[in-house]
Design brief:
GO molecular function: DNA-binding transcription factor activity
Protein name: Transcription factor, K-box
Organism: Corchorus capsularis (Jute)
Helix content: 55-70%
Number of strands: 3
Strand content: 5-15%
Structural class: mainly alpha
Largest sheet: 3 strands, antiparallel
Oligomer: single chain
GO cellular component, one term: nucleus
InterPro entries: TF_Kbox
Order of helices and strands: HHHEEE
Length: about 110
């Protein structure tokens, strides 16, 4: 029984490590186009959630008068960045509008 549980846990750890590598942009060559699109969607949803939470936090701080005008403008500028608006180039390949960011756009 313990050997089976141990094997299951090792397999689960391996799957989580692979998932983390993929989220960090490593070991992507083994993924299919469908898997890459799913990964991109997961990343986009995560960024959207983070931005929403940050905007809500800024609004809460603004209501409590804890954020001044210049700070608020800087935070809002960061929160409103759109790293996922692709610039479609001939051939159907899409790249981020931020050349220093390595973001793959499929579709």
């Amino acid at each position: 029984y313990y050997q089976q549980e141990s094997a299951k846990l090792r397999q689960q750890i391996q799957m989580l490590q692979n998932s983390n590598r993929h989220l960090m942009g490593d070991s992507l060559s083994s993924l299919t186009v469908k898997e890459l699109k799913q990964l991109e969607n997961r990343l986009e949803r995560g960024i959207t959630r983070i931005r929403s939470k940050k905007i809500a936090e800024v609004e809460r701080l603004q209501q409590a008068n804890m954020v001044t005008g210049p700070e608020l403008n800087a935070i809002q500028a960061l929160a409103s960045r759109n790293f996922f608006s692709p610039n479609v180039i001939e051939g159907g390949t899409a790249y981020s509008s931020h050349p220093d960011k390595k973001i793959l756009h499929l579709g």
